[in-house]
Amino acid sequence: MSRRNLFIIAFLLPSLLIMFGVIVYPFIYNFILSFSNMSLRHFRDWRIIGLRQYIKVFSENTFYVVFLKTIIWTFVNVTFHVVIGVFLALLLNNKSLKFKPIFRTLLILPWAIPQVITALTWRSMFNYEYGAINIFIAKYLNMSPVEWLLRPFEAFTACIITNVWLGFPFMMVVALGGLQSIPQELYEAADIDGASAWQKFKNITLPFLRPVMAPAITLGIIWTFNNLNIVWLVSNGGEPSDQTHILVSYVYKAAFNLYRYGYAAALSVVIFFILLVIGLYFLKKTRAVESVY
Amino acid sequence: MRTFAKFCLLFAISLLFFSCFSKNPDEIRIVIWHQKPPGEREVLESAVKKYVEKHPGVRVIVLYKETEELRSAYIISAIAGKGPDIVYGPSDQIGPFEILQIVKPLEEVFDSSFINQFDPRGLLWYKGHLYQIGDQIGNHLFLLYNTDLVQEPPKTMSELIQIGKKLTKDLDGDGKIDQYGLVWNYTEPFFFIPFLTGFGGWVMDSLGNPTLDSEATVKALKFVQDLRDKYKIIPKECDYNTADALFKEGRAGMLINGPWSIGGYKKAGVNFKIARIPKVDETGLWPAPMVAIKGYSINVNVDEKKLPYVIDLLKYLLSPEVQLEYVRQLGMIPTHKKALENDLVKKDPLIQASISQMEVGKPMPVVPELRAIWDAMRPYYQAVLGGTMQPEVASKKMQELAIKKIEEMNE
Amino acid sequence: MFNYKVKSFLVIALAYLFLILFTIIAIYPILNVVSISLRPADRLLSTSLRIIPENASLNSYIQLFTKTPFLRWLANSTFVSTVVMLTGVTLASTAGYALSRFRFFGKKAVMIGILITQMFPATMLLLPLYIMLIKLHLLNSYLGIIIVYTSTALPFCVWQMKGYYDTIPVSLEEAARIDGCNQFQAFYKVVFPLALPALVITALFSFMSAWAEYVVAAQILQEPELYTLAIGLKQFESSMATEWGLYAAGSLIVSIPAVLLFLFLSRYLISGLTLGSVKG
Questions:
Q1: Which among C26, C124, C214 is the nearest to A30, CB-wise?
Q2: By CA distance, what is C96's nearest residue in A?
Q3: What DSSP string describes B161-200?
Q4: Are C169 and C107 in contact (CB under 8 A)?
Q5: What's the pLDDT tens digit per position in A25-84?
Q6: At B147, phi and psi to the nearest 5?
Q7: Which residues 350-389 in chain B show a CB within 8 A of chain A?
Q8: Which residue, among B325, B358, B401, B389, has the nearest Cα to B137 in the 3D structure?
Q9: How many angstroms separate the CA of residue C148 from the nearest CA in chain B?
Q10: CA distance A77 to A225
């Protein structure tokens, strides 16, 4: 084998082994389960029953509603994460700004603190009577308090707000890193040419940011789509009335509350394929697999 | 290169270190999984410590897992042939455990003279077998009242409303209500049961079919709604933590909660007493909360060699001495006949009040279908409270959903 | 000239304004967590908005360090997370380089495949993962947990490194090879140092994916001596009797090493070793 190929293998193989090794067996197991009737009554003696679980998944109206909600959830969250993250990174990259280390450190705190306690803290901040948010709204904005956790739309919004708060530091850090790869001379040359701030951003900053942000955004979409924790904690498991669900929290309830493992496996496979389509589409659009020069 | 080499070395060393986690082969290792809240945990751990001191050669590992997680983790491990030797938890986890056949029938393991030492209410017989021996009877809701605000506990619901109205007020004139007559986690079906039973309803019949579509359900739903919207004695939004915080701050006259919370209120310095949840005027019935035991079961995977040690440890953990320690520190209701006779139990007003409530309670069903019923009740119950559904409609929908979910679960 | 000065002053002022606004939003909930940790008697909620509660006490912190195995959990987590960090950096920096510099059969499939491993909802993977680890005798060992954490962190890190390497022109390596370096030396001496900001992100991300992770750790580790911080913190939680004081105090302390790591690494994130200064 050529030296070149040996090099590639040495550099690539360990990572691939670990990444694929851990996932392959669970994935296949799950895939098989999705065609089975594994549940409480058929735990050890489950049999393959064909596509019945899939039919069940697609014949429930809630599936489509929750699917739509998940798309909205993902899109809104990632958009805010990226916009806020890049915005703050640009601010923090400004040469004439002081106290940058302090701002950087404080702004990264939402990522550093364990999610459970911050999610529960946000939940308490959304409390109708005693939560900080309603108090702020009533006192300083003179609006009437919102029933955040009692109404489905408001509860969903509360989850989104919490998740945006949790997610922007990550995008900010990635963007900051990306900004470092941009040669200063390009900006200087643009200034000499009389370019406006927007033109500089569009023609210099963006192209350099793209290859660095693309993995973060793509993975951000995937992670947000599958993020069970926040929705579960802020809405206390789907409240009000099981209306605050995204696909993964819906699966979780089915599997762990009612032991419907076959059904949950089928639903998980469906979620996977949905994400696959979205992911591939997004990759094509951002041409993320190509490089910048 | 250097960093890479350093890393490889570190990795290799750590590998060696951890593969050498050799276990002494002569030692008997018993693992207990439990979901005891802090307070009870310390009693368990010191009891285990005393046991281990008297039995060298036996090592006992006590692991805490939260209730829901305990159930799923135990199921996964036991099915895979592993798991702890002893599992402790509320009686309803036996429902799924029995179907999966992952706990041993205890009447085959302990002789009847031992089993007879326990009050029958502390034993869980299910489908003809004894699957769990409890060390406490409890898990039931009762009424707690702050003695600084409420001198005499109400005996009927109308008294409750009267007291509640007097206490619910704005203390500092800022337009917000600072003190409530009654607080409780009213969004969770488990906490709705006393009202349901107070109007004569129940969740299922003797065959396990749901009975949610009843007049009692409708009346109970209306009643809870009225407490908030008509009589205005409970907060607009109140989950478990809110109710807990309000009572601890002394801003609530009455609270509906269970024995697990007593320790926390004592610690917070609230002056309180316990009473039965007051009678419903219309029916004259005492509300009956669900009563359950929390107890020990043995994993079906425990082998013949280890079993005698496990039995010995359990006999100790269920003994009157250990049970009385729980009584002394936490006010729990014990299950051993000797412990129940003890002065500690007979002379403690909180425990006696708790027993009094328990006596009008109804045993919590153990069947796995109960979980489906909770899941069916919850969304429509919350919809009624949210004002988007009428009680009559909700009651029917709960029943429909419960039947559907049970069907799905039993396919 | 005058216009320019006013304009840039306004821009700077606005920049500060936004930064301060976002910083307040970022830290307010955390101040809440501080309040919980100082509040006596385990109350998650409070009717008052004061940051320092009445009867504030450091009791929770004292209890945390003296009466719980917190320090052991801290040591365990530090060990696990550091190993994951080192593994992540090593493997991602090399894999990303191979994907950036070489074309080979199946390259696109590999890249997309890496992303695909992230798409499956994690909750369903637990049962088979548990079975697999039992069969491999990796249950109750750090090796098992390190492998799983690395597999979760690698996809992002590999892609991220590749993307960053893509912004470094190949001409630099070509120059190095002309000077006599082989491929590995070109990588290690020329490209690797230039990718410092991306390495920082990889290190930070790998560390964080292991540091506060709970679900996998709880499944794998069965011995209290092995417990990590996340499992330890969960012990304070009990569905209806959580020791909020300890839990909040513990969470805050748990964040400190993560923040310190970021502080330490961020100077390399904004390092002067940017492309511009080296190109010539």
A1: C124
A2: A12
A3: HHHHHHH-B-SSSSSS--BEEEEE-TTSGGGTHHHHHHTT
A4: no
A5: 889 998 998 998 888 888 878 888 889 889 988 988 889 999 999 999 999 999 999 999
A6: -70, -15
A7: 368, 371-372, 375, 378-380, 382-383, 385-386
A8: B358
A9: 15
A10: 9
Which of B236, B227, B242, B150 has the alpha carbon at shortest distance from B194? B227
Omega within 30 of 0 (cis) for the link into A14: no
- CA nearest neighbour of B72 among B30, B125, B35: B35
* Cβ pair A215:C156 closer than 8 A: yes
Q: How far is CA A141 from the centre of its chain?
A: 31
Write down the pTM of the prediction: 0.84
C236 to chain A, minimum CA–CA distance in Å?
Answer: 12
Q: Is the pLDDT of residue A283 over 80?
A: no
What are the helix (H) ranges across B169-295? 193-198, 215-229, 240-248, 262-267
Nearest to B405 among A149, A256, A258 (CB): A258
CA-nearest residue of chain B to A38? B411
Using CA atoms, how far apart are residues B182 and B228, in angstroms rounded to an integer?
Answer: 10
B19 inside 8 A of chain A by CB: no
Structure tokens at A179: 């900004």
Q: What φ, ψ does residue B151 adopt, rounded to 5°? A: -85, -50
Least CB-CB distance to C241: which of B37, B246, B268?
B37
Give the number of C-alpha atoms closer than 13 A to the C-alpha of residue C278, restricted to the C-beta side. Answer: 19
**Which residue in B239, B242, B409 is closest to A259 by CB distance?**
B409
What element of type H or E holds B126? strand B123-126
Q: B6 to chain C: nearest residue by CA?
A: C86
Pick B61's closest partner by Cβ from C41, C224, C238.
C224
DSSP labels, A181-238: TS-HHHHHHHHHTT--HHHHIIIIIHHHHHHHHHHHHHHHHHHHHT-HHHHHHHTTTT
Chain B residues closer than 8 Å to C188 by CB: 1
Task: Assess contact for B368 and B96: CB atoms under 8 A.
Answer: yes
- Are the C-beta atoms of residues B215 and B222 closer than 8 Å to each other? no
- The tokens for B168 are 């619910």
Tokens of A21: 């090794």
- Of B160, B138, B81, B64, the C-alpha closest to B292 is B138
pLDDT tens digits, C135-169 = 888 888 899 899 999 998 999 899 889 888 888 88
Min distance A280 CA to chain C CA atoms (Å): 8
pLDDT greater than 60 at residue C116: yes
Minimum Cα–Cα distance from A126: chain B residue: B237
Quote the tokens at residue C264: 């330490």
Which chain B residue has the Cα nearest residue A130? B242
Residues of chain B with pLDDT under 70: 1-26
> Can you tell me which residue has the tokens 């945990």?
B41
Q: What is the largest CA-CA distance in chain C?
A: 74
| Contact state of B411 with A39 under an 8 Å Cβ cutoff | yes
Residue B127 identity = K
Task: Indicate the length of chain A as a whole number.
Answer: 293
**Structure token pair of residue C180:** 């006599």
On the question of pLDDT at C273 being above 60, the answer is: no
Question: What's the rounded Cα separation, in Å, for the pair C201 and C164?
Answer: 11
Q: Which of A66, A231, B373, A123 is nearest to B381 (CA)?
A: B373
Q: Is B410 on the interface with A (CB under 8 A)?
A: yes
**If residue A106 lies in a helix (H) or strand (E), which one and from where to where?**
helix A100-112
Q: Enter the ipTM.
A: 0.83
Are residues A112 and C259, on separate chains, in Cβ contact within 8 Å? yes
